[in-house]
Amino acid sequence: MTFWLNKSRLALLAIPRYRTRGCTVWRITRTMMKRDARMMMPAGLAIVIGTLFMCLTLLFGNVANASMRREMSVDAGQANYVVASREDQDKPILFDEFDSKGLSNLQGVRGLRPDVSLLVDAEANGQSSKEILAIVGARQELMPIDLVRGQWPDSDDQVVLPQPVSDRLQAGLGDKVRLHLSTLTLPGSDSDSAQDSSSKERLVDQGTVDLTVSGISKSRGRQYDDFGGAVVLTDSRIERLLSMAGMVGPESLPVNNVYLQVDGQGKELQKALQNIRRYVPKGYQLEDRRTMEDRLLREQTGDGVDITTLFLMTFGLLAMVVAALVIANTFQIMVARQRRYLALLRIIGADRRQIRVGVLQQALLLGVISSLIGILLAMGLMGLAGCLGLHSGTMKFELLLTPASLLVPFVLGVLATLVAAFGSSHRAIRVRPLEALQPVDYQEPGSRDRTGLRISVLLAVIGLALVTWSSWRVGELVRTNSGDTVQTSNQQERLLGLAVLGVLLIFLGALIGARRWIPALLRCLGKPVSKIGPSCRVGVANIARNPSRVAATGVALLIGVTLVSTLATGAVTAKRTLFKDIDQRYSVDIEISGQGLNKRNVRAIERIQGVADAELVQRFNAKVESGGPSQASMTVYALDASRIRRVLHADLGPGMQRSDALLVSTRTISRHSGYRDGSQLKLSIADPQADDEREKEADARRTLTGVFAGFGGLDTSGVYAITDSRNVAGIDTKTHEIWIRTQGDRDTALLLDDIRQAVGEHDDMAMSGGLTQMRTWSERIDSLLAIMVALLGVAVIIALIGVSNTLMMSVLERRRETATLRAIGMSSVQVRRSLGVEACMIALGASLAGIVLGTLFGWIGAYQVFVPLGSVTFTVPWSAFALILPVALLAAVVASVLPAREAVKVSPIEALSDD
């Protein structure tokens, strides 16, 4: 069969029935796709973006996986085999028992390095560096660090220093360095007795050696950052150090792994490995590098599952769902445009199966081409990132291809296209042959619409019931908490799962019933808009003409806006609830601790904008006895009683009216029995200035009156109390804190930076308190929200492509109508404006509905998660909504540009044409 296309007519030149099968159907499919290529471009673009995102996600996962493998196996250098301990190992092999020489002399073993490390101290030029990690030296290929200059130690009197240690000690190549074992490496390092300390010092002196610096090294990663780098010694030097310190036999260091570089291929390699296995100790196993990396990856991630990749893939799947909605809308209109041609095919003998196959072939071709383009773009972007040398921390971007990273996005892209087009193929087979003579407008069956409405209402009711019951039950669970934290937590997780299921059912019901309520919502919004002018009246009328198409477009945008609104509402509600809880838990806004804090620092802080008051507070470690069996170690803060209320957010009551009051926090003292409000408490503080132990105890004892007060958040380590500084007069302390009370709404980050500068000379300064906690949680929530909204932006972009697609189809479908409007006097500006109004109405309706649903869903989630903290502060993110609506409307206007440009090209003469 041969067909040819002339403008919009399908002319039949030959009609033999036997040729309406096989390759002819495929040729017809390609011909019809060429005719409607412009219509399919938005759908193809949606698939391109979806597969691009998914492929980039998987390629990023490959890079992250490779980076994690390198980081975890960096100790192995370039070793291709490793002797590693098994999980069932009960006794590791010790360093002085391991036959490294016998193993290294085996044929095929090019080199080995035992994984043994110990802590050493280094001294040179009056400088010292404590607790540096020392490792065994070997061939360059087996070393986990790189040599900057010099050479690896080839004798026991040589050492390689890391660059930071070399700079600190001011020791270069050829200089002498004194080295000895750190006391933390010695046996019994946890003991603090005077006898053990003396013994350790004696062992350290015995193990002190003078070595010559033979090289300077640098780390490849961050595995040695906590130690300032790694010192390299020969294995015999390490053995002699351990022997000099008495660390032999059972006290010797264990060998964790032995890294090997084995040469050979085929039978030669197998023979070498067989010989190596004879030297493998009991409880150890020989692994190749890939097996070792897989094992380490499983230990790091549990089951070897990359959580980050899975997290990103969920957003990729969401983008594919939205793309499927755009595709479904495209094929629905395409089938409507092709109904007459499909009827002609039915006349010449095509059966229903061939019609369905023809539509699905178009979807298959579109999905394959678009998916391949998306994958190629993803590969190009990742390859470009690698060429530019982009990196994130230790992770360097590069193009690492795996079958899954190419096949998964391709298959999902093609499947999404086929599934989205399946409904349109079902409509295509219901085309009657008589429609070839007289086109008939397609009408959606009303019975199906009513069935969908019933299903949507049922799902929404079930979801609402689940949400209501789970919310009530979690509130009851918190109020009747039995004290079993584990059981309560498990029940809360199950109730949260039910609430999430309920929200999903409500949302699914809203999506299924969208064909009813979205057009109704747009009609309500369009009534006042249609009175503005002719362009608005035409735009609103166009929306009402095809509710199915408008509903499908609105649903795509609704999904993105709802999810963004849910995240924004949940985030702002979480922040307000957490801030309220932090404000109740922390009585001091900012608490600064550190050595050497003084009144000069306080005066500098008081001059900072946003600081209402600052006080220097003494801090003591004390024991408090109640007169009975109760005794508690307690942190006691002392300052002038008249100044306590200036910096403390708490209702202290009349307690501080007593000169001998010891304000005890009710939030921490409740865990100790025997303490009573108003009882006499014996306070014992060690006086560091006293010489005799008895004088220390006698001078530091005070009898105070315990007063319970509702303050908190001062010391996370245990129980704490506050008293007047006069009650601890004569007892000196080197530990002070500065308590700060803030005022106004100055930016927290700027305020904390100014405070750090005011006390910048204190290296050990630490800041805590309610304000710092609020800032920490605010940054975490804002960062997570920004990441998730950015990821959801992919789905929103695809949804806006759907808006443009709907408008373009509307323009192509109403060319005669547009020509008629132009003929009766409508200007091109008014035509453009009508399409802009149509786009804005769809975006406005979907955005408003998404904001309402998102607010409800965000409140439900926040309540389920934060109700254990007390009352949940339900908050509306007005600033986020004030951004969502203008952005949606602006994007809708941009989406209407291309359809409007197509519409104004229509000549008024086309109103007179027959077709």
Automatic annotation (TrEMBL):
Transmembrane residue ranges: 310-331, 363-384, 404-423, 455-475, 495-514, 550-572, 784-807, 842-866, 878-898
A molecular function GO annotation: transmembrane transporter activity
Membrane topology qualifier: Multi-pass membrane protein
Span of domain MacB-like periplasmic core: 45-263
Top-level taxon in the UniProt lineage: Bacteria
Gene Ontology CC entries for this record: plasma membrane
Location(s) in or outside the cell: Cell membrane
Pfam families: FtsX (PF02687), MacB_PCD (PF12704)
Annotated spans, Disordered: 184-204
Ranges for domain ABC3 transporter permease C-terminal: 314-430, 791-908
Segment forming the signal sequence: none
Keywords in alphabetical order: Cell membrane, Membrane, Transmembrane, Transmembrane helix
Family stated for the protein in its record: Belongs to the ABC-4 integral membrane protein family.
Protein name stated in the entry: FtsX-like permease family protein
Species, as recorded: Bifidobacterium asteroides
Phylogenetic classification of the source organism: Bacteria, Bacillati, Actinomycetota, Actinomycetes, Bifidobacteriales
